[in-house]
Amino acid sequence: MQPIFFTKLSTIGNNYLILNYLEQPELSLDYANLAKHITNPRTGILADGIIILLPSELADFKMIIYNRDGSRAKTCGNGLRLIGHYLLEIERFNQPQITIETDSNVSILTHEEDLITVDLGFAHSLIDPCHPLSLKSQVTDYCGDIETPYGIWQADMISMGNPHFIIYTDDDHEAFEEEMERISKNYDVNVGMLTVINPNELLLTTYERGSGLTSACGTNAAAAVASAVARRQVNPYELITVHLPGGDLYLKWNEEAHLLATGHCTKICCGTYFFEGEKKDF
């Protein structure tokens, strides 16, 4: 058995287990298999995934994310804020800002006391990856048709370093949960059902690949705000409240067209998990 020391943190219903290898060598493990077992609610510690914290040659720190199904995520908005909170607690975030390397890019974190903000950078169109969304973007630059049992739906196809479909509706989001799962699996994307409440408020439900229906997805919320700003549904340069099943996340499209996400994080517990590396995958 391999002892794995972890710290569990939570933000708006998202829970991740952080494995800290800043001061000790990274363990040689099958982390995809570990993620499946350690996050199992019956035999492990319930969580949406694991985050491995490492030194970086490109940034101040590096994080690698595995979803609870063992898939590797390129980036994670809520995970970045959780890492920021964790680094604050261990006194490694004493400067005004730090940089975190992910599989997708390098993100900038800032904090005001214990409130963490992550700069998620530009939103890009999945239709034309070289095209960052701007206030001059045309809907055809980032919107495409998808077939569903309900007919042809339009989806705003947006990358935040990972892929997202944003689908607008005024109906109850729960009615489309099965269809969200189908779209996610067919297109290998995170799917967000979005309702515009007013120019500063959105309602969002997300099916996240690798995790399923989730309490919150920071990059999906950023993609939703980018879509709504480009469509002139919400205000740029102002704080937008995104109501998620797990709580509220606050986002802003700033003057550089970067998406900034802000929210509180909480430390839940820490402990040791004993991993039997020869366990078979689910």
From TrEMBL:
Instruction: Cite the position(s) of the site with description Could be important to modulate the pK values of the two catalytic cysteine residues.
Output: 164, 208
Catalytic positions? 76 (proton donor), 76, 217 (proton acceptor)
Q: Which reaction does it catalyse?
A: (2S,6S)-2,6-diaminopimelate = meso-2,6-diaminopimelate
Protein name according to UniProt: Diaminopimelate epimerase
- Mind naming one GO cellular-component term on file for this protein? cytosol
What's its job? Catalyzes the stereoinversion of LL-2,6-diaminopimelate (L,L-DAP) to meso-diaminopimelate (meso-DAP), a precursor of L-lysine and an essential component of the bacterial peptidoglycan.
Q: How does it assemble?
A: Homodimer.
**Top EC category:** isomerase
